[in-house]
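Final report, closing paragraph on structural work. Over the funding period we assembled a curated collection of sequence-structure pairs, and we close with a single example.
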Amino acid sequence: MPTIKINNVPSSYQKQGKGPVIVLIHGLGSSSLDWTPQIEELSHNYTVVIPDLYGHGKSTTLPEPLTVSDFADQVAAILDQEALGAAHIVGLSLGGAVAFQLALQRPELVASLTITNSRASFRPSGWREKMAVFTRSLISRLLGMKVFSRVLAKKLFPNSEQLQKLFQTRFVKNNPKNYRLCMQALFNWSVEHSLQSITCPVLIVVSEYDYYPLEDTKTYMEKINNAQLVVIEGAHHAVTLENPTAFNQALRDHLEQQLSAEFSSAMGASV
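Its predicted structure, as stored:
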């Protein structure tokens, strides 16, 4: 995996394929490995860039204090390093927050967004959400990542023991301190009052049984000028692994729509 230093902090990423550029940004406690079903399919026709966000995978260190803006800077630095220009940005959960943040910080680098099972604000509202955040932190601190991985695996993949085992094998490799710092950065983040500034096309992908209510998603979608919604039935939060066929189809349709629009625009400009 290539590695670059951003403000003296090493950052690792994968780059595969040729063609229009897609960036796949993983979720909290995940890594570039969890995009394997998408890499295998997309790299035939696209240049696929997959960072390990700070504190994840092979990007083992992170800046402190850490913010979601730092993650967005990390992705931007990789695109700048590779001189790839504007890319189609795909984010899952934490990755969706990073994608939104990147579109606001460096809009010239974002051709389109695909936001999957994510939010415009992860700041907990109400006692239920605050308790959920507290419980998550407490479990990781007191019971350790191995026990925590079993709890999460059953929620993410209730219908697949194979995916539960795969998830646990990968998740336990997280550094507990890094995980909590990344979680804290995420739950301090919000762009819900800036969404109207996003002008690129946006695809919102939601699982039927995601953590976050569909009505919440529809509420923040109303603030985006050019957004479409796809709901994947029967799926849970980690839909990219649980049902890659349905997710990949939704993503391919979105990308082909954007590339067709870009081609038509270029042809019109040349006339």
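The longest strand covers residues 9-16. The mean pLDDT is 93. We thank the funder for supporting this effort.
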